[in-house]
Specification:
InterPro entries: DUF3800 (IPR024524). By secondary structure, the chain is of the alpha/beta class. It has eleven helices and nine strands.
Length: 297
């Protein structure tokens, strides 16, 4: 059997988020369908319906938008049946282009936060792990052949952590990306092929990482949507100032979802073939993806 690493990006438009983050969730193939079924049930429990019926996704920027928290705080926690009724009405009015009522705004805000909690709970229940690389948003790509044709170091470190995990399990891993832009995706595939065929480290790591990435539309994959939520929470709620992760946080995300991230991130004591020993973590900070070195989180 094998593991699937569902990957997405956060903050790469350099507009609102404090960092660039690439990463996601790894889940065993045998757990993927139970995980998806749990998310489908959680949507009905939270919203009274499945979001895809309303052309909605479990995007972190949507579920945990500042407005959702503001709406949720408009009243005390609603009883489950009332929340589902009003949240479903909110979604229906969205399709009908009608303004929701105050109760419907409140219910939808509470349902969104409840759903985000359910995603993390389902990740834990199904043995999923979080992997991610964090990069400062101020980093600028140099004008060089290497920057164009080789994987950035944050991508390499992300693959490194996934490799260590797979090697310890003696199981193969597949990479599943959110398909966004065909041209950019093709370029990334070319960079990965160069890494896995032209470098000694890449060749070695292809023993466990299958170097043929898959691309899926996020609206068709709940697992990719869960990856989006996880890295959004990393961007806004996971900090270790001693390593340079000191950009502003959103306290409501840090308090509610920071502990989940610390619990779910991959952690392992690694011994390399050369005998070097160290602790490896799934979330890593890379100050310069075009330079040398990283700082583990």
């Amino acid at each position: 059997m094998s593991w699937l690493l569902f990957l997405d990006e956060s903050g790469h438009d350099h507009k609102n988020c404090p960092y660039e983050v690439r990463g996601g969730i790894a889940i065993h193939a045998s757990k993927l369908w139970p995980f998806v079924k749990q998310l489908l049930n959680a949507e009905v429990n939270a919203f009274g319906a499945n979001l895809r019926e309303y052309s909605k996704e479990l995007k972190g920027a949507k579920l945990l938008d500042r407005d959702r928290f503001k709406w949720a705080r408009q009243s005390e926690r609603m009883p489950d049946n009332a929340r589902r009724k009003h949240a479903r009405a909110f979604l229906t009015k969205g399709l009908e282009k009608k303004p929701p009522s105050r109760d419907e705004f409140t219910a939808y805000g509470q349902a969104s936060i409840e759903m985000a909690r359910s995603v993390f709970e389902s990740l834990r229940n199904n043995g999923a792990l979080v992997f991610a690389s964090i990069v400062p948003r101020t980093i600028k790509k140099p004008a060089s052949f290497e920057a164009d044709e080789y994987l950035r170091k944050d991508h390499v470190f992300l693959l490194e952590r996934f490799f260590y995990f797979l090697e310890s399990k003696k199981e193969h891993g597949l990479l599943v990306f959110d398909a966004v832009d065909k041209g950019a995706d093709q370029k990334f595939v070319r960079q990965m092929e160069r890494y896995f065929t032209k470098t000694a480290t890449g060749l070695y790591r292809s023993n466990w990482i299958v170097p043929v990435p898959l691309f899926v539309a996020s609206e068709m994959s709940l697992a990719v949507q869960a990856a989006d939520l996880a890295i959004y929470c990393i961007n806004w709620g996971f900090r270790l100032p001693t390593l340079g992760l000191d950009e502003p946080v959103r306290e409501e995300i840090a308090e509610q979802f920071g502990p989940w991230l610390r619990e779910l991130q991959y952690q392992q004591h690694v011994t390399t073939n050369g005998g070097r020993q160290f602790d490896s973590y799934g979330i890593t900070f890379v100050p310069n993806p075009y330079g040398d070195g990283d700082r583990q989180a």
